Structures are given as structure tokens and as C-alpha cells.
Amino acid sequence: MSDRFDELVGEVDDPRERERLRRVHDLLLSVDAPPERSPTPGDAAPPSPASLLPRRRGRALILLAAALAAVSFGAGWLTGTRGGDAEPEAVIAMSGSGATGSIELLPQDAAGNWPMNVLVRGLEPSRDRSDYYELWLTKDGKPVESCGRFTVHPGVTTVGLSVPYGLRNYDGWVVTRAGSDEILLTTA
Fold first, then answer.
1. What pLDDT is attached to residue 185?
2. 19: which residues sit within 8 A by CB, 6+ positions away?
3. How far apart are CA 186 and CA 79, in angstroms?
4. What would the mean pLDDT of 156-174 be, rounded to a whole number?
5. Helix, strand, or coil here: 89?
6. CB 175 within 8 A of CB 146
7. Which residues have CB under 8 Å from 159's CB, separation 6+?
8. Nearest-CA neighbor of 104 among 84, 126, 74?
9. What is the rounded distance in angstroms from the CA atom of residue 36 to the CA atom of residue 64?
């Protein structure tokens, strides 16, 4: 490359600017020329992306497997916590002073038991396991047969219970607290 500085730059009035441009020109001349490119783009073979495909497929398969596992777990959890999705045969409302509840009576099982979901709200939360509530079947409004015991937390508490009794022999349900005969919830 020849020194054509004056031809390339032309006249520059400021001597400091001219000197700066001269230094840049001299630096450019001191550097070797870049390597020649191949004459046609097709002559140079680009790196093969084939080596990346198995890794991408592997990642995709791992993500797909993780997604399927999450969906399976979620579906199992939902169906497992819903008691088999049996539709209630009857929903019996319960009420009391400041509390409400309901009994979802599920279809009788093959052994003759009556499974049920009991939902209560507004009862004082249990302090510990010895502070529980009890659901009773009644005759003439008096508790006669226990349907089960449960503890309560703030908000809505849902409990799954099951009884072997023939329900037509009774006239309702009540809820009492351990150590007390006071009826807190009743169907009557």
C-alpha cells in the first residue's frame, strides 16, 4: 500500500487535526492486510449444526417429560383429594349460633357404609388434638350415634367421614364439642 495521505485527506486547516489523521493513517499502514476471503460463499463450508440437534432434542425431551410428570401429578392430586368425584346423593344444611355447615351424603359403598363430606365454618378452631368436635345422628333431637370426630381450623374445614348405620332410623345430625353436650350445629 502506498503513502497517499495527502490525496486521501486533502487539505486540513487545523494542524493538530492533520497530525491526528496522520497518526491514524500510519497505524493503518503498519497493520497487515486481512486474509483473503474465498471467491464464492459456497466454497467455505459453515460449521455443521448437526452436533447441536441431539442436545436440543435431549433438552426438549427432558422438558416434555417434566411437563407430563407435573400434569400427571396434578391430575392425581386433584382426583385423590376429591374422594373419587362421587356426586352427593343429598346435601344436608346445618346451622347454629354463628356457625354453618353441610353434610354431602355420598352414595352408599358396597359394604353398606355411608361416606360423607362434612363442611363447617364459624366453629372455634381446635386448640389441639384433644379439643375436637363430634358429628352425631339424632333420635328425637338427641345425639345417639357418633358419626366421627374432627378438629377445626379457621375458615372452612372439610372432613371425610363414614358411618355404617341405616340412616332412615334417625331424624337428623348435630355437632357437639368434646366434653360438652351443647349442640353447636344442627340439621333441625
1. 93
2. none
3. 30
4. 93
5. coil
6. no
7. 117, 118, 119, 120, 148, 150
8. 84
9. 47
